[in-house]
Write a structure and sequence with these properties.
46% of the residues lie in helices and 21% in strands. It is an alpha/beta fold and 360 residues long. It has three domains: 168 residues, 2-Layer Sandwich (GMP Synthetase, Chain A, domain 3), CATH 3.30.300.30; 82 residues, 2-Layer Sandwich (Histidine-containing Protein, Chain: A); 93 residues, Alpha-Beta Plaits (2-Layer Sandwich).
Length: 360
């Protein structure tokens, strides 16, 4: 997961993730993101002089279960159903990627003038992907609307996508382009991130988080220390290796701060694939499930399932709770995740708590 999106991701995931929020987020992003040039950091930096689409990639993880683990977990109720649903979700994600690529390529080939970009929004709780064509003038909206629908329809048939929505949106063109000075700054930051990432990966600091503050010229690196580590020795050794790498890459005047990652930060990262499976599999099983949230603060971990249930449907709430517990058991076994106390909370259609159970 891209380190630079960690804070955005964590904030977004902490709140209810449902169709209403997704729609609001989509329209806010589409309205705001085109006002000024944006930059997006991953392992490589991409420049957007005419357009940028902000993509928040939430809770992505593997859903593969080894044959050995499958045999061990065969005594879990609903195991076959849960496993099958996980595989279906993975297949669906792959098909969506191909679907998006196909539509985008066809749009670029058929309607380049006036078209700014395309975007695809999906939700774990809505089976309808929403394809949006962004144009910079109302006349293009009128001219391309039908053609865009035809393109999406043909690509949906090709990729076996049965349900989808399309829309054409007029956006304001960006006011400026990225200056050469800004490009140089972004290239420099990209080099710093890549240099740090290489050192961390080489030295097996896989659960790390990097923040660079250009104002204070400081790189803050949060790492996970093992219980047996001499923290002071590891910090000094890692700092020396980073300084050597900086010198080799001609990165100057950048201070290094090494900090210890908290347990909750590490758990947050480790549990992401579990949260993904909870959202995907529970919403496939129960049409009443329409939202998800979690929080590690305060302890224990709270896993909140939002539903459309009336408050008197206690039995159905317990059924959902038990099913979510089984999903967690399967994924924890697969990932060898550390056991921690957690609470499953089921909320009714008015967002009131109707059922909860603590697991220690």
């Amino acid at each position: 997961m891209d380190r630079q999106l960690k804070k955005v991701k964590a904030h977004f995931e902490h709140h209810y993730y449902d169709d209403e929020m997704t729609d609001k987020l989509k329209h806010i992003v589409m309205k705001e993101v085109h006002k000024t040039p944006k930059k997006f950091y991953r392992n490589h930096i991409t420049y957007f002089s005419s357009v940028a689409i902000l993509a928040i990639v939430v809770l992505i993880g593997s859903t593969f279960l080894s044959p050995t683990m499958a045999a061990v977990m065969s005594n879990v109720p609903y195991f076959d159903e849960i496993f099958s649903s996980m595989q279906d979700s993975e297949d669906q994600e792959k098909r969506m990627d191909i679907f998006y690529d196909d539509v985008t390529k066809r749009v670029k080939d058929k309607m380049p003038e006036g078209v700014v970009d395309t975007s695809l929004f999906t939700s774990h709780f809505s089976k309808k992907p929403n394809f949006t064509l962004m144009v910079d003038d109302k006349k293009w909206k009128k001219e391309y609307e039908k053609e865009f629908e035809d393109i999406v329809n043909s690509m949906a048939i090709k990729n076996h996508i049965d349900h989808y929505k399309t829309e054409v949106t007029v956006i304001d063109p960006p006011e400026t382009i990225v200056s050469e000075k800004e490009k140089e700054r972004m290239e420099y930051l990209n080099k710093v991130y890549n240099t740090i990432d290489t050192v961390l990966t080489t030295n097996h600091f896989n659960k790390s988080q990097v923040d660079i503050d250009p104002q204070t010229k400081t790189a803050t690196i949060k790492v996970a220390f093992n219980k047996t580590n001499n923290t002071k020795h590891v910090t000094e050794n890692l700092t020396n290796k980073l300084e050597e790498a900086f010198q080799k890459e001609n990165i100057q005047d950048l201070a290094i701060k090494i900090k210890k990652r908290s347990k909750s930060e590490i758990w947050d990262e480790e549990w992401q694939p579990i949260f993904t499976s909870i959202m995907e599999v529970s919403s496939d099983k129960f049409t009443e499930v329409n939202g998800f949230a979690y929080s590690f603060h305060p302890a224990p971990l709270e896993i909140i399932i939002k539903t459309s249930l009336p408050k008197n449907e206690k039995n159905k709430a317990k059924e959902i709770n038990d099913y979510v517990k089984q999903i967690i058991d399967v994924k924890k076994k697969e990932l060898s995740v550390e056991d921690i106390p957690y609470k499953i909370i089921i909320r009714d259609k008015k967002h009131k708590q109707m059922y909860e159970e603590l697991y220690e």
